[in-house]
Each structure stands twice: as C-alpha cells, then as structure tokens.
Amino acid sequence: MGKTIIISNRLPVSIQKKEDGLSYTPSAGGLATGLGSIYKSGDNVWLGWPGLYVTNDSEKEEIALNLKNENMAPVFLTKEEIERFYEGFSNTTLWPLFHYFPSYTSFDEGYWETYKLVNQIFCEETLKYANNDDIIWIHDYQLLLLPNMIREKLPNASIGFFQHIPFPSFEIFRNLPWRKELLEGMLGSDLIGFHTYDDVRHFLSSVNRLVGLDNKMGELRVEERICMVDSFPMGIDYSKFDNAARSENTIKEIASYDEFLGDTKTIVSIDRLDYSKGIPDRLLAFDLFLENYPEYKGQVTLLMIVVPSRDQVELYRQLKVEIDELVGRINGKHGKIDWTPIRYFYRSFPFTSLSAMYRLSDIALVTPLRDGMNLVCKEFIASKIDQTGVLILSEMAGAAKELSDALIINPNNLPEMADAIHKALTMSEEEQIRRMDELQSVVKRYDIHNWVQLFMRSLDVVKEKQHEMSVKQLSNHSKFELIEDYKKAEKKNTFS
Ligand code: GDG
C-alpha cells in the first residue's frame, strides 16, 4: 500500500514575508482539519501553491524545507500564471459559469492556455512524489485537467477528485469552448465526488452528450477502467464549533457585544464577498421586511460580515460598492438615533468572534443565489448549544438538500424572504428546538471526519472493483486464447 497525496490549488497554510523572515500560519479551515488526519501521517503529503510569489531559489528551498516538516510541498507559480490561471480561467470562466452566471463568464483562449500549463506544472510536481500504488486526492475546479494528466503517467494509481462548487446543467456547461477537454481531464479519476446528487446528474448528462459514455448507477466505463461518480455532502468539524460555543472566551466575547446590539433580536449573515452569495438581494429583503413589518423597527439588528475576497477583480469591486451603498441607504432610511438596522463589517474576524456571533444570533440568514454546499449554515447549527434559533436557507445551496428543517426560501423571491424573517421571529421556542434538534443530528452525524472516511472508503471500493474486473478480463482472455490454441491444434491434427 502506497502513500496518500492530497492536491489543491492552495496549501492549508498562509506564509507571510516579515522583517525577521517568513512566518507560517496553518489554516484552521474545515477541509484542512478533516484532511489533517490523512496528510500529516507517515510519508503522506499535501501539494499546492503556497500563496506567495517567490523568485529567489534559496527562498524556494527554505520554504520547501519548512513545509516538508509539516508534510506539505509547494507548487511555485509566477504572478502571471496566478493572474491567468487562477484569477483568469478559474475565477472569471469556471466560477461564474458553474454558478449559473453565464453573462459574467469570459471565454479567453489565453487564460485557457495558462490553465492547461498550470495543471501540467501541478502534474510534474506530483510525479516527483507519486508512484503507481499511491492514492491521490485532487480538489476542486482549478485542477479539472489534472486527474487525466496523472493517469497517463501512473495508470494504476488510485485517483479521486472532489469538486467543491456546483456542476451546472448541460445547457450551461455546453457554453464552454473547452468543455470536452475538461470532462476528459476529470474522467482520469477513479472516483469523482460532488456535494449533491443534482451535481452528479448534471455531470453525467454532460459526459453522456459530450463524451458519449452511458452510466450505470453512476458507474462509467472509461476505456478499460471504472470511473464512479457519486455525491458526498461535505460536513464541518462539529465538535470544534460545539466546544467553542460553550467556551469561556466565547461567553466573554458575547458579553462585549451587548452594548452595541442592546436587547434587539439578531440576524447573522456571513459570507465571502461574492456575487453567488446573494448579498444585495438579502439586504433588499431585509429592507422589505422593515417596510412590511414596521413594528420590528428598533427590535431587530442584521449583523452582516462580508469577508474580503478577489477584490482585484472589477466585478467584485463593483459588488462591494453596491453593498456599501445599499447598507447606507437602508440604515439611512430606517435607522434611529439609538438603533442601527444593519451592523456591517467588511473584514474577517477571529474564530472566537465567529463563534460568539453564531451563538448569540437568533436567526441565520443564508441566501446564496447558488452555492456548492455552504458551510456557514452548518456552523451556525453546531453553535446553537441551547437549541433555540432559526436557520433561513436558500434552496440554491447544496446544504438545503440535507437541512430540510430550515426555513427554505428562493433567494430571488424578496417577499418570501421578508416573510421568512417574520416567521422566524415569531416562531415558538418549542418549534425552534424541534427543528434545531433535527438539524443538529444531521450536521453532527455527517461531519467532516465522516466525509473524509466515506470518500476514501469509496475510492477503495472502486479500486477493488477495478481489480476484480481486470482479473476477470485476464482470465476470460486466457480462456479465449486456450480455445483458439485448441482449435488450431485440432486443425493441425486433421491436416496431418
Ligand atoms: C467553497 C464553496 C462549499 C467566513 N468568514 C470568516 C470565516 N469564514 C469561514 C466560515 C466557513 C468558510 O469561511 C466559508 O465557507 P462556505 O462553504 O460558506 O463558502 P466558500 O468559501 O465559498 O467555499 C462552498 C465550500 O467550498 C466547501 O466545499 O461549501 O459552496 O463555494 O467555514 O466559517 N472564518 C473566520 N473569520 C471570518 O470572518 N475565521
């Protein structure tokens, strides 16, 4: 049994250049925690871009050496490569199209060329570590071509691929000039995972129409190989959020918010800055709620965190301006001397603050226009240790498939969202607890550790099946050869 190699665009560490040298901060994200049990042991390794540009060879060596101690290996990329592969093809072609924003999608041949080149660079780096008996788990839309690139060099390796964002319907996907190449790249995997069954269906339909392969219960035959496609809804580190919500630090932090939140009901909203998250529509729905239910003025505060992201891209800059203006307009329209309807922060917060916001809030308003899964809603659920609180969740988030005890809304329907806020505010404590209990049992059972185990086990099962099939093919082949030999021998006898 070989080692396990994890590959993602970014390594789970942030490296900064400081006056006294380089500083390394490990990522505390859910994926890094879940995969920690894998990449940190033995010879296993996590490969990815370290997040900074390094031109100097001795600095590269220093970084590689330091990362090696943490079972990580850097894939160094130039500024131009990142601009064209990551900001370009990944974030202005694949991201908008896969989130159903075709009008935001750029189709740039130059970006595509760099995307191929960078996937090739990842392949070459991987081959420095990987062997034919290794397990290789590739993550996300930045590396769609990588599975097949590795397969061509290591035909027997176990290759898994998981896509964290949605896979769009064929009618959207077909717009891509490079659609067939991308599918063929993914099909180099033994196992392809998505968050939801809808993503699986969309992917299989595109494979059928563009590559001409039929599937049987998600199983494809790619030449002589099995490629299994299935859904693996990603979970969170439940106990981390549950424990944090009970901790002294969180309780202290909550007390420090008392002054500015007063005794109003609190609605929490947390996202990265992104048009897929539906932030302007959410603000408009809150505005409509205050208009339709004016008795709640002064009684409810929307605590809105927008985490800066991709702000070099013009579309994101415009979105930021739109949000700033909407917040200003709504606060100006409804606010009072002693009440600000929206408390808005354009920055990220430390984990303890996040835990405090989840725990103190009465409602979480999670209304993406499209989201692969959405972990924020699961984190809110895990933090509600007294089981009161209501989740309002968009039907367009992958999480809605599992969390049917939330108030499910269409994020384009502003009156429905405004009414859902009212319904949440007037929901009896008994109903809140009943719903939250169901939600917690789902999120607790299918946590990040369960997700990692399930994916790895499924990859094993595909490989087993693949092995059995090869043995069968081999023995069938030998039988056939025997019969042929026998026939030839008979003929020889007749003629002699
Ligand atoms: C992609 C897919 C899929 C947010 N603000 C702060 C902070 N966060 C953390 C949250 C949460 C994460 O960021 C956001 O995760 P999401 O799942 O909501 O969204 P994406 O970043 O778009 O993730 C998504 C996910 O991949 C996993 O497959 O669910 O659909 O788009 O964990 O807690 N963390 C801290 N401070 C903040 O201010 N510390």
Characteristic terms for this protein:
496 residues, alpha/beta, Rossmann fold, nine-stranded mixed beta sheet, six-stranded parallel beta sheet, 17 helices, 50% helix, globular, binds GDP-alpha-D-glucose
Question: How would you characterize this protein structure?
Answer:
The structure is a single chain. The chain has helices at residues 30-39, 57-68, 79-98, 109-127, 146-153, 170-173, 179-186, 197-211, 238-246, 248-261, 279-292, 314-334, 351-360, 376-383, 414-426, 429-445, 448-495; strands at 4-10, 13-18, 21-26, 45-49, 72-74, 135-139, 158-162, 191-194, 215-216, 219-222, 225-231, 265-272, 300-307, 342-345, 363-366, 390-394, 407-409. With 496 residues, the chain is an alpha/beta fold. It folds into two domains: 4-231, Rossmann fold, CATH 3.40.50.2000; 239-435, Rossmann fold (3-Layer(aba) Sandwich), CATH 3.40.50.2000. A nine-stranded mixed sheet has the order 5-4-1-6-7-8-11-10-9, sandwiched between helices. Strand 9 and strand 10 form a beta hairpin. Helix 9 crosses helix 14 and helix 11 runs parallel beside helix 12. It binds GDP-alpha-D-glucose. Residues 30, 164-165, 234, 270, 272, 305, 307, 348-349, 351, 354, 371-376, 379 line the site of GDP-alpha-D-glucose.
Order of neighbouring strands in the sheet with most strands: 5-4-1-6-7-8-11-10-9
Reported for the largest beta sheet, the result is: 9 strands, mixed
Helix content: 40-55%
Percent of residues in beta strands?
Answer: 15-25%
Name the shape in a single word: globular
pLDDT < 50 stretches: none
